[in-house]
Design goal:
This protein is an alpha+beta fold. The protein contains 14 helices and 26 strands. The protein has a 13-stranded antiparallel β-sheet.
Length: about 525
């Protein structure tokens, strides 16, 4: 039977089962809390809406039926998974540095509340946190102490496998869309808007079960991902289970951000109506107030410049923050080293540069790494037509950044004509500027620093080590000694007589400390 005939047969069968269509109408009326009714003069549902409701009702039936899901008081999900440190990995296209997590999540399905305890393990460190999510607040914390959490976590309460069908039925703009193919199987597509963000739900042509969902939105509450603007997030479901209660649920969810594989979460225990303390979803009143106040405030400049800028050499200022930036005064203008994390951050740095040197133009910005926090603010420099110096190997990721859509929350680059930016991709050592603060920029071309550059101040014997020089918390040993050794090796190869070194997360320290740390020990 060919595909067209299958479709005709399906709709004939569906039209002949008035009970199925009745379920669709009942679901739309009883589960779509807050959905406006068909008042006099209001436009009646379109054929696309009715088709979407029919497809959703079929999916609800396949997952156990509306009555069973209405009877669910809570779900307890425990399991583990892994995710990729996309923003910190050595190459944008992978392989990626992995991290692992375990989770214990309690969901109040009907009240749209959740409590998630999660423990992450990455790069030799382990940390846990608890998140409480309700319709009006997100609280994040541990050991009984909470603070306002990321708002976008509320998405889990409305678009998770157990709730997304009902969220779709409640959407005033619910409609069917053009069929597509995922995993080699035809998918019916249901589209709707949730909190002003477009969502597409994929329903398996053969089984009726949801294959997954896609939402396009800015990820403003997650520092690293927000640099990409409007992100297409795709969650695909698999490894379905049939619970003794008659509910079906996918135990595995895989997630992609803008086409990059990000995460797998696997439920190992799925329990319906598990007992839980009465205060499982309680949030302190002070945290609620702080959360609501923060939501009314515009997103601040990330990292800020709370500590004062420090002159580390004549005409060379280090501006501290979560990501340090350096301002270099030359005879014909200023050079900024690094454009971290966001356009807002860059705008704050540029304002600070003008406070330090009023009236001097910014002649260039140097981006030394492909780690997302290092270059996420380049769009602000592009919007101001400030020349950018970046490594040749990083051209694809920088061009991707400049192509990214910020339509939901436009930045300066989105609001310009987006003409061709002024970018010089560095392939070999070059000199920028003249006089006592001239700079030498050189690619690392090392194993772990393949996508990074060094910046050297010849007159000051001062070296900027990108992200490759980082002290541990003890302030004596170095994080990833391989990084440090590669910086030493490259500086010696280039013939730079370094006396001091600093980096994005490290204030100036004696080069001798690098020498001592990277000297091989005697004996084993």
């Amino acid at each position: 039977m060919n595909y067209l005939k299958q479709r005709v047969t399906f709709w004939q069968r569906l039209a002949g089962r008035t009970s199925v269509l009745h379920v669709a109408v009942v679901l739309a009326a009883t589960l779509a809390v807050g959905q406006p009714g068909a008042a006099q003069g209001q436009q009646l549902p379109t054929a696309a809406t009715e088709r979407a409701r029919a497809l959703l009702s079929r999916a609800v039936q396949q997952m156990g039926g509306a009555d069973r899901w209405r009877a669910v008081g809570s779900l307890r999900l425990t399991g583990r998974g892994h995710y990729n440190l996309l923003e910190q990995s050595e190459r944008f296209e992978g392989p990626y540095i992995p991290a692992y997590f375990s989770f214990d999540e309690l969901r109040d399905v009907n009240q749209r509340q959740a409590r998630l305890h999660r423990v992450d393990a990455m790069l030799g460190s382990t940390f846990g946190r608890t998140t409480v999510v309700t319709d009006s607040v997100v609280a994040l914390g541990g050991r009984g102490r909470f603070a306002p959490g990321p708002a976008d976590v509320q998405e889990e309460n409305y678009l998770s496998p157990g709730t997304v069908l009902f969220t779709a039925l409640a959407a005033p703009d619910l409609r069917s869309a053009k069929d597509t193919v995922l995993q080699g199987v035809t998918q019916y597509v249901v589209a709707f808007t949730w909190r002003n963000w477009p969502v597409r739900l994929f329903l398996n042509h053969d089984t009726g079960l949801p294959t997954g969902q896609e939402i396009t939105r800015p990820v403003n509450d997650r520092y690293f991902f927000q640099i990409w603007g409007d992100i297409k997030i795709v969650n695909l479901y698999s490894f379905w289970t049939l619970d003794p209660t008659g509910l079906r649920y996918p135990l595995q969810t895989d997630t992609w951000y803008n086409g990059q594989y990000y995460r797998t979460a696997l439920v190992e225990q799925f329990r319906v109506n598990a007992s839980a303390p009465a205060d499982s979803f309680a949030v302190p009143a002070a945290v609620r107030r702080a959360y609501q106040a923060r939501q009314r405030q515009p997103l601040p400049v990330i990292g800020g410049v709370a500590r004062p800028a420090a002159e580390i050499a004549p005409g060379v200022y280090e501006i501290p923050g979560n990501w340090d930036v350096t301002v270099v005064k030359q005879s014909d203008g200023l050079v900024i080293i690094e454009a971290p994390i966001s356009s807002a951050y860059s705008a704050g740095v540029l304002a600070k540069a003008q406070q330090l040197y009023p009236g001097l133009p910014v002649k260039a910005v140097i981006s030394t790494s492909d780690a997302w926090p290092h270059f996420g603010g380049l769009r602000e420099y592009a919007a101001r037509n400030i020349p950018v110096y970046a490594l040749d190997l990083n051209r694809p990721i920088i061009e991707k950044l400049l192509r990214s859509s910020f339509r939901t929350k436009p930045d300066a680059w989105q609001q310009t004509s987006r003409k061709k930016p002024s970018i010089r991709y560095v392939s070999q050592k070059l000199t920028l500027g003249q006089g006592p603060n001239r700079l030498e920029i050189a690619p690392m071309r090392s194993e772990t620093g393949e996508r990074m550059m060094l910046v050297y101040f010849p007159e000051h014997h001062l070296l900027y080590g990108s992200d490759l020089v980082q002290l541990n918390a003890d302030n004596t040993t170095f994080f990833q000694l391989q990084y440090t050794a590669e910086v030493r090796g490259r500086a010696e190869e280039l013939g730079w007589p370094v006396q001091r070194v600093f980096a994005m997360h490290t204030s100036p320290l004696a080069w001798e400390k690098i020498i001592r740390a990277t000297e091989p020990t005697t004996g084993f």
